[in-house]
Amino acid sequence: MKKAIALVLAMLFVLAGISALAESGKLTLATNVNFPPYEFYDDETGEPTGIDIEIAKAICDKIGYDLEVVDIDFGSIIPALVAGKYDFSAAGMTVTEERKQSVQFTDTYATGIQAVIVPADVEAADINALLEAKGGHMNIGVQESTTGDIYISDDFEAAGTAEVKRFKNGADAVLALTAGQVDCVVIDNEPAKAFVAKNEGLRLLDTAYTVEDYAMAFPKDSPVFEQFNAALGELMADGTLQAIVEKYIPAE
Ligand code: GLN
User: Fold this and answer.
1) What average pLDDT values come out for the chain (252 residues) when binned by 10 residues?
2) Host domain of residue 165
3) Residue of 39, 81, 93 best suited for mutating to test ligand 1, as the one with most atoms within 8 Å of CB
4) Looking at the chain, which runs of residues are DSSP E strands?
């Protein structure tokens, strides 16, 4: 009996979810608008733009919703989705087993690797050489709760070879690097390139970390997930997605 009541309640919640969405006609996208070229503020319009925002907009157009972008810290995104505060996230978010416990991911639409930003006069070829040059201990800047944070915490902090300074977003981490407060910043390669291009006196090292898959994240009980993911698949198949990516990341 209890189970039956729970089932009915669950169905009512799903229906209420669908009708709330249908009524508002709008999907809210939670992201951290400081992750170029995936999401950043357009210099001219002051509006959030970038690969994730454009893909999300194209999908919303296709399935008949308006899109509202909400800018929050990266580390707050998954808890907020779980709490049902927003409809989904497109945030250059890497698919991880741990995150899958909390949210469901769409198909993968991009890949990333972790890169290391250093002052341009640093001669080290990789992060381990940098650590050696620093005498076996250094300060590493990361964005809180990102895969960069997770890897560096596991590989360096746990080994006692680094103090990890966690920032709310990539721009703040890079600011700390230019101010000499950290020895390097570990962040996804495309934002890393964009930050290096915007700030003089920085350069990139590559890490050997594995390739990461980016996907959009939805609450597990999302009423629009299937429809949204199907539309994403169609935009991948018809070349729309590739055209958006190439607008921001010219083919090499
Ligand atoms: N790809 C990284 C992650 O998912 C960073 C994403 C971000 O900072 N927006 O953890």
Assistant:
1) 56 52 82 96 97 98 97 97 98 98 97 94 93 97 96 95 96 97 96 95 82 96 98 98 94 73
2) 112-212
3) 93
4) 26-31, 40-41, 48-49, 66-71, 88-89, 103-105, 110-112, 114-119, 138-143, 162-167, 184-188, 202-206, 212-214, 217-219
If asked whether residues 80 and 131 sit together in one domain, one would say: no
Is residue 92 in contact with ligand 1, taking CB distance under 6 Å?
A: yes
Number of domains in the chain: 2
Q: Does residue 219 share a domain with residue 104? A: yes
93 within ligand 1 shell (Cβ under 6 A): yes
Q: Which residues of 86-121 are buried (b: 16+ CB within 10 A; e: fewer)?
A: bbbbbbbbbbeeebeeebbbbeebbebbbbbbbeee
Global pTM value: 0.88
